[in-house]
Design a protein that fits this description.
It is a single chain. By secondary structure, the protein is mostly helical. It is 67% helix and 0% strand.
Length: 46
Amino acid sequence: MTPDERAAAFDASIVRNLDDLPSEFRARVEARGRRLAEELRSASTE
């Protein structure tokens, strides 16, 4: 799946607000988002 396809899938998802998720799952999603953002920052500086 390309990044554009991933973005489109996310945009089409049912969950629009992380507050709608159970707190444990929300914490995992937020942690993954932070890791991915850090990976993108690292990749853009190489």
